[in-house]
């Protein structure tokens, strides 16, 4: 009988051909039965989805059904894989179904849906368009096409925002480099958040500046300190006669005439350009962008990494008549993310301790 024929041999007699036809019919019947069982498992609900996949797989493996019938089974298995969250498998099955029968609209729909869930938007749109060519009135495909178009629009808008953020950050980085400024690791971000310097249309840097009252570690925050502003301008506004006294300054020691500004100098580790750019992008649309710095090597990486010298950190008094830029470009000033200055009062008992170098950051 044909059932025991050797592999690769062809039936020769009418009896062998009849046996082979009977065997093929049995396998075809079994495959169709497995397909129907798979459909039943799908209708029975989520707990039976894996059994449905198994039935569809066994039906396909019979290798006796027509291409159009196999296309339906692949599309059915794609549907179940979508329900299971196996989107890559769902896409593979849907693509095979469409390959076997290019007019299988359900296969094209499921290929489009799986592609969308995998964020393969170009492919998703192509499958949708192919399906609508075959069935222009298909509401499911129309709905899916709208979802794809909305997602593509959102992605394009996000990419534009990322590009804009990266371009702006690179301009700021270039301005910092041109000015010879040194940026170190950010400090006090719990007080400043993710505020960063910005470059205006006239190519002038505007810095957020933190003012720390060293005596009590309270702070003031200047959101926009133009690099061309001198310090006296801001201090005049902060400590004007109309300004309320500081709530913790019971002795009224922090007056305009008494306050002085200092910065910490003599130590610090400078960031390289490749390190500064991600920092500048923090909190922006480009914060998660990959390969955001084009430079392969940064000549400043090693030359300016450590400027600690032989002395420990010391406090340098700020000349109020100087601009922010003039102070920031001092060779011993490493900007800790954003400029930080320490406010002390000549009238306070803390003043002598600070100037004697006995005070250190908590």
Describe the structure in your own words.
It contains 13 helices and six strands. It has helices at 14-44, 49-61, 67-84, 87-100, 105-117, 121-134, 139-178, 189-192, 231-238, 273-281, 300-303, 324-328, 350-355, and strands spanning 198-199, 205-213, 218-226, 259-265, 314-317, 340-345. Strands 1, 2, 3, 4, 5 and 6 form a six-stranded mixed sheet that branches.
Quick description:
With 362 residues, this protein is α+β, with helices and mostly antiparallel strands. It contains 13 helices and six strands.
Keywords:
single chain, about 350 residues, alpha+beta, six-stranded mixed beta sheet, 6 strands, rod-shaped
Low-confidence stretches: 1-5, 293-311
Reading the helices and strands in chain order gives: HHHHHHHHEEEHEHHEHEH
* DSSP E strands, number: 6
Determine the strand fraction and express it as a percent band.
5-15%
What global shape is seen? rod-shaped
Provide the residue-averaged pLDDT: 89
Radius of gyration over C-alpha positions, nearest whole angstrom: 36 Å
* Assembly state: single chain
Main beta-sheet strand count, sense and barrel state: 6 strands, mixed
Q: What is the CA-CA span between the terminal residues?
A: 93 Å
Question: Helical percent range?
Answer: 40-55%
Note the total helix count.
13
Derived from helix and strand composition plus strand pairing, the structural class reads alpha+beta
């Amino acid at each position: 009988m044909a059932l025991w024929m050797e592999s690769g041999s062809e039936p020769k007699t009418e009896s062998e051909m009849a046996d082979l036809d009977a065997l093929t019919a049995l396998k075809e019947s079994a495959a169709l039965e497995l397909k129907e069982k798979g459909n039943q498992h799908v209708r029975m609900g989520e707990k039976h989805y894996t059994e449905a996949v198994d039935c569809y797989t066994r039906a396909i493996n019979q290798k006796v059904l027509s291409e159009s019938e196999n296309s339906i089974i692949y599309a059915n298995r794609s549907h179940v894989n979508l329900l299971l969250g196996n989107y890559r498998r769902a896409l593979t099955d849907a693509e095979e179904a469409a390959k076997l029968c290019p007019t299988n609209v359900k296969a094209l729909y499921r290929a489009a849906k799986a592609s969308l869930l995998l964020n393969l938007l170009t492919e998703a749109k192509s499958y949708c368009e192919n399906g609508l060519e075959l069935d222009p009135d298909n509401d499911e495909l129309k709905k899916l096409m709208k979802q794809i178009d909305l997602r593509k629009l959102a992605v394009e808008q996000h990419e534009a925002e990322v590009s804009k953020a990266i371009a702006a950050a690179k301009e700021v980085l270039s301005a910092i480099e041109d000015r010879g400024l040194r940026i170190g690791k950010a400090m006090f971000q719990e007080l400043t958040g993710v505020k960063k310097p910005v470059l205006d249309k006239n190519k002038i840097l505007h810095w957020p500046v933190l003012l720390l009252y060293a005596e009590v570690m309270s702070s003031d925050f200047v959101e926009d300190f133009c690099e061309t502003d001198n310090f006296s301008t801001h201090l005049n506004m902060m400590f004007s006669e109309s300004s309320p006294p500081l709530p913790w300054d019971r002795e009224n020691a922090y007056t305009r005439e008494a306050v002085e500004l200092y910065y910490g100098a003599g130590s610090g580790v400078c960031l390289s350009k490749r390190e500064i750019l991600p920092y500048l992008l923090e909190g922006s649309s480009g914060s998660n962008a990959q390969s955001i710095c084009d430079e392969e090597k940064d000549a400043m990486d090693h030359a300016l990494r450590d400027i600690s010298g032989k002395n420990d950190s010391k406090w340098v008094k700020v000349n109020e008549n100087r601009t922010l830029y003039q102070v920031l470009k001092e060779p011993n000033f490493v900007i800790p993310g954003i400029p930080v200055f320490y406010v002390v009062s000549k009238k306070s008992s803390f003043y002598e301790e600070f100037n004697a170098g006995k005070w250190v950051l908590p």
